[in-house]
Design brief:
349 residues; alpha/beta; TIM Barrel; eight-stranded parallel beta barrel; three-stranded antiparallel beta sheet; 13 strands; 38% helix
Length: 349
């Protein structure tokens, strides 16, 4: 039995946010004493003008304020994404606001972009850049304050602030926990956000994170708009409001987005549809329900060049990352691929 399996009952006896805080503290300590180990060369790629030693990234939401970047890299991730960060600090929604659905290997959260604000994270990221040993890519996920009078301007502000420090920027217009935010995924608002973010960060890779609850047609339309506005890629996807996969849970009626295993199929199907429609012209990051190398490989073969996870770690622990890297390398070789990039989108006819 792994150490994490032994510790998990203790962690699961704590409120989810308390356990999460302890995990962040542990990773901060680890980041000060440990460096990432060398990865199998078959997993390495250059994307977005960046070198990724492996395709696995910590999804946004885990390290909102950029406190444990080195620790995230130390447990094996090829990249980290901090945030979502808003221009002004905000507490988010009232607690309790995170719920474990262990039988479904899922979480429901309605955090609401709780963070200490962009200025706080900016200073921390500058300090990390100055001190980091063997740094790996770090993305910054930007959002709008709940009470902002001009939410589009909030995205422009975030892009301008982090353009010089972030390896890439993620525009989060798909969280279900800020009222009205998902309305920005459609029509003129999405195009305006993309134009203003691109103008504010002309030399920084920009991706847009979308919701799995969109129709495939709408997701493809957003991808076409992204290409037209010189956006580099999409992250597919955020949490879902659907309750199909958690219908028997006592928490099913809790407001918020579902993450974890119930999201896997819907997010992967959307990923496949967007990759096929865009002809590989956009860099796609697959996220949603990944807790094994086989699930990561399915997203890669559906069109993802990179894969993010978070909820899978809650149930499997930090050793999951190294295990997935080893097993994914074996799968690639077994299927005759010389490099991971050769496997991207290969399930699409």
């Amino acid at each position: 039995m792994s150490l994490y399996r032994s510790l998990r009952p203790f962690l699961f006896a704590l409120p989810p946010e308390t356990a999460h805080g302890l995990t962040l503290k542990g990773l901060r300590l680890l980041g000060g004493i440990s460096l990432p180990t060398k990865d199998d060369a078959i997993l390495a790629q250059n994307l977005l003008g960046l070198d990724f030693d492996n395709p696995f990234g910590m999804a946004a939401g885990f390290d909102k304020d950029g406190e444990a970047i080195s620790g995230v890299h130390a447990i094996g991730f090829g990249f980290a994404e901090i945030g979502t960060l808003t221009p002004m600090a905000q507490p988010g929604n009232p607690s309790p606001r995170v719920f474990r659905l262990a039988a479904e290997r899922a979480l429901i959260n309605r955090l609401g972009f709780n963070n200490r604000g962009q200025a706080d994270a900016l200073a921390r990221l500058e300090d990390w850049r100055a001190k980091a040993r063997n740094p790996r890519p770090v993305g910054v996920n930007i959002g709008a304050n709940k009470d902002a009078e001009d939410r589009i301007a909030d995205y422009e502000t975030g892009a301008a602030r982090f353009a010089g420090l972030a390896d890439y920027l993620t525009v989060n217009i798909s969280s279900p926990n800020t009222p009205g935010l998902r309305d920005l995924q459609s029509g003129a608002a999405a195009g305006e956000i993309m134009r203003r973010v691109r103008a504010a960060a002309p030399d920084t890779p920009v991706l847009v994170k979308i919701a799995p609850d969109m129709s495939h047609a709408d997701a493809i339309g957003l991808a076409e708009l992204a290409r037209a506005e010189a956006i580099d890629g999409l992250i597919i996807s955020n949490t879902t409001l659907a309750r199909d996969g958690v219908a028997t849970s006592k928490h099913k009626d809790q407001a918020g987005g579902v993450s974890g295993a119930p999201v896997f199929t819907m997010a992967t199907d959307m990923l496949r549809a967007v990759h096929q429609a865009s002809g590989g012209a956009l860099t796609l990051i697959g996220v949603g329900g990944v807790a094994s190398a086989a699930e990561a490989y399915a997203k890669i073969r559906a069109g993802a060049s990179l894969v993010q996870l978070y909820t899978g770690l809650v149930y499997e622990g930090p050793g999951l990352v190294k295990r997935m890297k080893r097993e994914l390398a074996d799968m690639l070789r077994a299927d005759g691929f010389a490099n991971i990039k050769d496997a991207v989108g290969t399930d699409i006819q």
